[in-house]
Design goal:
By secondary structure, the protein is mainly beta. The strands form eleven sheets. It has a five-stranded mixed beta sheet, with no helix packed on it. It has a four-stranded antiparallel beta sheet with strand order 2-40-39-38, with no helix packed on it. Strands 4-5-6-7 form a four-stranded antiparallel beta sheet, with no helix packed on it.
């Protein structure tokens, strides 16, 4: 998807589709308890449960029209990509704790800001490499906060800590008050994850903030996709927050397969059930991602929601959302832990969005689906030695949040010849619906490897019972080219990514399917915002989301939506706040109807999840990173922007 936005033609403006006004859900005792607690934003997902919900309502449906920019902080870190500095990507969500805002920058600095002014209080620079990063991008999604149990202990140096791993797999502990290194943690204040045993080829990276419970900090790692047969095993580790000593580790790869495959790693954010002390992981595909001949044996903890006991690292349960993944359909987002009204009773649930566009709703205690899930027959692989799973789990409810089928006759283009070219491209691919296996001929991948949903995840509003998720709707192709016939100069043209898949007989090529004029080959909307009623599993409303801003300054119609990266938050004020779109606009929607009620221009696309908090000055602030995405070729900035009422 890199850089394709600039190719789309200018088009006429159009209105946004809206949905009918539904009745609110009545909050019960469990919901009231959540509302009372969720007024700060001490974790990446709002609370450790990743609900991305705030009980603040100073900014609400009636007052949001008065929302204005309060301050802007600039990190000073922008790169369009070079031999010495990788692209910068804006994906950071700050946290509010200890009456400060804490976050991190694309080049890996941890920072503390004055929440009322945006003034930088302190900065810690771990000297992270600026080039040679995974996917040639510089970014940091966020940090975690911990404080000691007693006031006396909190008053001591490092009695309050910021913990984060700055992309290069080094876990740091920083004093939250001063920004000084907590030297008693690990070796001189850090733990080098790359020095630990990961079993496999490659180096680990860290793409998401760690999770904290009690005196335990846990984190997963990213590995290089589609590179090695025996990638690093996706080991998740727990460390003592005070000493940095490793307490436990858990490996999703069975011992008997660890020498021939790897990955199944949790690169996305993690969630914690604070009451149970359980850590919830979203795991990805085993390696190779699109060829599974080396891992025919069952790997039940790949592409799964996994619950671990944070005390011991022991698995409590897991639920697999894709069997024998051949599509790079990682679980890309933190599981959302919510209490929902199910069949007349309050049930603690896990809500998991996926790249396929499916949404799974599981019983948090057992991992069993709360809405029916059917095992549906899917196409067989025609690759030598491959054994695609015969069936895949498909939720009956909720309905998918994005399209999952694309016929040749559905081909779309801006003009007649454009449509015809897309039709020809689709006709040349193997296309038997969702889960069509990769092939030498080339296979359709819809939703694309970008999703569906991605790392922004799902926000849950306990006052309405609505789960809100943004999604992209693009088609892609995936082709396995025999290595002996592969010629990079001949087979790869602009827009195509190729992957070595070292040790295999094939090279993997994949691309988002675009017309000659640069438009997606599948019909719009190309991005949507969806609200799902967790009481019934039904879609309450769905609206196109985002617009493509062209180099001419014109925008595509709002009814067409646009691909997006980031996630939503919801508030007791009846609002959904979301950046995520690639048009440099920050938006608010009425959670009851999906109607856009406010927007503001920001310096660059806000490809990050926002947050909100009430500071000691009594004001509610909404904050979003608006730095753009160098990998997507968007406008770039270094801004963190805060909004508040006058």
């Amino acid at each position: 998807m890199r850089g394709w936005l600039a190719l789309v033609l200018a088009m006429a403006m159009a209105g946004c589709q809206q949905a009918p006004d539904p009745a609110p859900v009545h909050a019960g005792p469990a919901i009231a308890a959540i509302e009372a607690a969720a007024t700060d934003w001490p974790s990446y997902g709002g609370q450790a449960s990743s609900t991305k919900y705030s009980a603040l309502d100073q900014i609400n449906r009636e007052t949001v029209k008065h929302l204005r920019r309060a301050w802007t902080w600039h990190s000073g870190e922008i790169s369009f990509g070079s031999d010495t500095v990788d692209f910068t990507v804006s994906e950071m969500t700050p946290i509010y704790a200890n009456a400060r805002l804490y976050g991190c920058t694309p080049f890996g600095r941890a920072v503390a800001l004055d929440p009322a002014t945006g003034r930088e209080v302190w900065s810690f620079d771990p000297r992270k490499p600026r080039t040679g990063n995974m996917y040639h991008e510089n970014y940091c999604r966020g940090v975690a906060y911990w404080q000691a149990d007693t006031a006396e202990a909190r008053a001591q140096p490092c009695g309050k800590r910021i913990l984060y791993a700055a992309q290069h797999a080094v876990l740091h502990a920083i004093d939250a008050d001063s920004g000084r290194v907590c030297t008693g943690f690990g070796t001189g204040g850090h733990v080098d994850l790359a020095a630990l045993d990961y079993k496999g080829e490659g180096k680990p990276a860290t793409t998401s903030p760690p999770a904290v419970w009690g005196n335990v900090v846990a984190l997963g790692a990213a590995v290089q996709d589609n590179m090695y047969r025996n990638s690093l095993d996706g080991i998740v580790r727990g460390f003592d927050i005070v000493t940095g000593r490793e307490l436990w580790n858990w490996n999703p790869i069975p011992d008997d397969l660890s020498a021939v495959t790897g990955a199944a790693n949790a690169w996305a954010p993690l969630s914690v059930d604070a009451k149970r002390g359980w850590l919830f992981l979203p795991t990805g595909s085993a390696s190779w991602d699109t060829l599974g001949v080396n891992r025919i044996g069952r790997i039940p903890d790949a592409n799964a929601v996994v619950a671990l006991d944070m005390r011991t690292g022991q698995k409590v349960w897991s639920y697999q959302t894709v069997h024998h993944d051949l599509w790079d359909y990682d679980l890309p987002a933190a599981p959302t832990l919510a209490t929902i009204d199910h069949q007349g009773r309050a049930v603690e649930a896990v809500i998991q969005g996926t790249k396929t566009g499916n949404v799974f709703v599981l019983d948090r205690a057992t991992g069993q689906p709360l809405f029916p899930v059917k095992e549906r027959p899917v196409p067989r692989s025609d690759m030598p030695g491959e054994q695609a799973a015969a069936t895949q789990p498909m939720p009956v409810l909720p309905r998918p949040v994005t399209s999952q089928t694309l016929k040749t006759s559905d081909a779309w283009g801006l003009l007649g010849f454009d449509t015809s070219a897309c039709r020809s491209r689709l006709a040349g691919l193997r296309n038997e619906g969702l889960f069509t296996p990769p092939s030498i001929r080339g296979s359709l991948l819809h939703p694309s490897f970008l999703g569906g949903t991605n790392w922004g995840g799902i926000a849950y509003d306990p006052t309405t019972g609505l789960a809100v998720v943004n999604s992209s709707n693009l088609a892609a192709s995936v082709r396995l080219v025999p290595r002996a016939r592969f010629d990079a100069k001949r087979d790869v043209h602009p827009g195509v990514s190729y992957y070595e898949m070292q040790g295999s007989p094939y090279v993997m090529l994949r691309e988002v399917l675009l017309s000659p004029l640069g438009a997606p080959c599948n019909p719009p909307p190309w991005g949507q915002l969806t609200a799902i009623d967790m009481k019934t599993g039904q879609t309450r409303w769905q609206v196109p989301f985002g617009r493509l801003k062209l180099s001419t300054g014109l925008l595509t119609p709002s009814s067409w939506g646009a691909p997006n990266q980031g996630g939503p938050i919801v508030t007791r004020g009846g609002l959904v706040f979301i950046g995520a779109s690639l048009d440099s606009v920050f938006r608010a929607y009425d959670i009851q109807t999906g109607r856009q009620v406010w927007y503001a221009a920001v310096p660059a696309p806000a490809t990050a999840t926002p947050m909100t908090f009430r500071h000691t000055d009594g004001r509610q602030y909404v904050v979003v990173s608006a730095g753009g995405h160098g990998g997507f070729g968007t406008q770039l900035s270094d801004a963190l922007v805060a909004f508040a009422l006058p």
